[in-house]
Amino acid sequence: MSKSIWKSHRDALAARLRDAVAVVFAAPEQIRNNDVHHDYRQDSDFFYLTGCEEPECVLVIAPHRAVGDQTALFLRTKDPEREVWDGERIGVDAAPGVLGVDKAFPIAKLAELLPEWLKGARKINHAFGRWPAQDAIVTDAMNAAARIHRRLGHDTPSEWVLPEELLWEQRLIKTPESIDAMRRAAQLAAVGHRRAMAVGRPGVFEYQLQAAMEYEWMVRGSRRTAYSSIVGSGPNACVLHYRDNARQTQAGDLVLIDAGCELEDFASDITRTWPVSGKFTAPQAEIYRLVLAAQKASIAHCRRGHTFQAVHDATVQVLTAGLVELGLLEGTVEACIASEAYKRFYMHRTSHWLGMDVHDVGRYRLSGASRTLEPGMVLTVEPGIYISPRDESVPERYRGIGIRIEDDVLVTTGEPEILSANAPKEIDELEALIGTSTLA
Ligand code: GLY
Ligand code: MN
Ligand code: MN
Question: Given the CA of residue 227, which atom of ligand 1 is nearest to it?
Answer without folding.
Answer: 1
